[in-house]
Hints:
Blueprint: H1 2-17, H2 21-32, H3 37-43, H4 50-89, H5 108-122, E1 126-127, E2 133-134, H6 136-139, H7 150-154, E3 170-171, H8 177-185, E4 190-199, E5 210-220, H9 225-239, E6 247-254, E7 257-270, E8 273-276, E9 281-291, H10 293-298, E10 307-314, H11 315-323, H12 336-342
Parallel strand pairs: 1-4
Antiparallel strand pairs: 2-3, 4-5, 5-10, 6-7, 7-8, 7-9, 9-10
Helix pairs in contact: 1-2, 1-4, 2-4, 5-11
Amino acid sequence: MHNLDALKSEILASFEAAVDIPALEAARVAALGKKGRLTALMKGLGELGPEERKATGQALNRIKGELTDALDARRNALAGSVLDARLTSEMIDVTLPIRPETEGRVHPISQVLDEMAAIFGDMGFTVIEGPDIEDDFHNFTALNIPPEHPARQMHDTFYFPEREDGSRLLLRTHTSPVQIRTMKAGGPPYRIVAPGRTYRCDYDITHTPMFHQIEGLVVDEHTHMGHLKGCLIDFAKTFFELPDLPVRFRPSYFPFTEPSAEMDIGCERKDGVLFIGKGADWMEILGCGMVNPRVLEMAGVDPKRYQGFAFGLGVERSAMLKYGIPDLRTFYDADARWLSHYGFSAGDVPSLVGGLTQ
Length: 358
Ligand code: DAH
């Protein structure tokens, strides 16, 4: 019996001495495994006389039970300390200062294009796109600007090198060629807007060689000048979020519209600051007109049956007016500080469903 107590103490001590789960498992095998010390004693019971076998057997079973309990307790303790160690080593210090914000900003041009598409979308327009690289026919001729027309000089066109047949591709000088592509792609009616990049060889406070326009085209059997005015007035009031915005249409000239007009919005300049929506001044925001029958004809649409209007709007100018951005050139400086000031959060496109006047 004395021997058994000593053995029990030794085994218990080996469990306590185990510093981690694998060490404890080794101690368990040494005591209770197939070739363990306690197992060996149990195997030897058969060699004892009946009396002794009974007493020793009971003692061994009791010790085995105690050792198993001690083993479980030690295993739980070690597992707990493993967890504690992980919690300590992987602790997150919530008092640390946050990392600098790295979220990007939406460029004002993207924002304004989204706003415009949302407004025209509500009016039933479809948004389509055309290529930046155009040919002479779509950019000029089909828009009633023949080769010697003075409007060609005004456009300061970027041309590509001459091709074998003597023709030259060009960077589109306006989004109007999308009108032609739309009409040639299928029959009327049309009710589209075409936003995109446009290019002219020009650079000063109010011009960059690349800029954006949004083109509009509505053609069916009934659309008249009254529709043109209603549509563009509603657009301007909704876009500038000014239900009482003063607007006026001034007669103008574009080869691809007849009659042609420019639309101005009311504004006031005071101490070098521009206020829109009130005052005695006017500011031009877009060109428009009834589609010239010759343009319809060149695009394969019967001008005796179909008519409609078109418009072209400068996106940078509109963004500057709406969001108070003073210098056009800063749009393309790629300055992150400028963008964090003038940019928008993703998903910030306002819901303009139904416009402002409802
Ligand atoms: N394409 C013209 C420009 O770049 C703008 C324009 C004027 C477009 C009148 C139109 C229009 O569709 O009807 O200056």
